[in-house]
């Protein structure tokens, strides 16, 4: 009999993952992610749907010239790209402040369990 025997079967990566998945930190991480992702996704989809509906049903409004050959439809179309970059920046900032610290703690806990 070995003196290093712990008395139970060794933990597999599945049991380590199950333990981490059931932890309060993981639930908090998932909750924080959902609090950002779901509202932001809904907001972007509404903004995009508004653009599509205006382009299809409000030709007069969308073709209103702002200056030169630039019209409201072109500006709204370009704002779709701008909003994508803004959302990405907001997510990175949110992840750095709210998600990454919790994920780092979960990772450290898993590594301690496996060591």
Topology:
Blueprint: H1 13-21, H2 24-57, H3 59-62, E1 65-67, E2 70-71, H4 72-114
Antiparallel strand pairs: 1-2
Helix pairs in contact: 2-4
Please explain how this structure is put together.
Pfam families: DUF485 (PF04341). Residues 1-21 are annotated as: Disordered. It comes from Amycolatopsis vancoresmycina DSM 44592. With 115 residues, this protein is mainly alpha-helical. It has one domain (25-113). The chain is built from four helices and two strands. A two-stranded antiparallel ribbon has the order 1-2. Strand 1 (65-67) and strand 2 (70-71) form a beta hairpin. Helix 2 (24-57) packs antiparallel against helix 4 (72-114). The protein is elongated. The mean pLDDT is 88.
Q: What is the end-to-end distance?
A: 22 Å
- Could you give the count of β-strands? 2
User: Per DSSP, what share of the residues sits in E-state strands of 2 or more residues?
Assistant: under 5%
Give the C-alpha Rg.
25 Å
Instruction: Name the helix and strand elements from N-terminus to C-terminus, one letter apiece.
Output: HHHEEH
Shape: elongated
Q: Can you give the mean pLDDT?
A: 88
Low-confidence stretches: none
How many distinct folded domains?
1
Tell me the number of helical segments per DSSP (H or I, 4 or more residues long). 4
Helix content: over 70%
Biggest beta sheet attributes: 2 strands, antiparallel
Across the major sheet, the strand order is 1-2
Structural class: mainly alpha
Pfam family, one: DUF485
InterPro entries: DUF485
Keywords: Membrane, Transmembrane, Transmembrane helix
Protein name: Clumping factor B
């Amino acid at each position: 009999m070995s003196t290093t025997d712990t008395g139970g079967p060794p933990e597999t990566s599945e049991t380590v993952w199950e333990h981490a998945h059931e932890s309060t930190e993981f639930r908090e991480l998932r909750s924080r992610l959902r609090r950002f992702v779901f509202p932001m996704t809904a907001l972007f989809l509404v903004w995009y749907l508004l653009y599509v509906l205006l382009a299809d049903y409000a030709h007069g409004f969308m073709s209103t010239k702002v200056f030169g050959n630039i019209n409201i439809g072109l500006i709204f179309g370009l704002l779709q790209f701008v909003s994508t970059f803004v959302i990405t920046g907001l997510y990175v900032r949110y992840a750095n402040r709210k998600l990454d610290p919790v994920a780092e703690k979960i990772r450290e806990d898993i590594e301690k369990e496996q060591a």
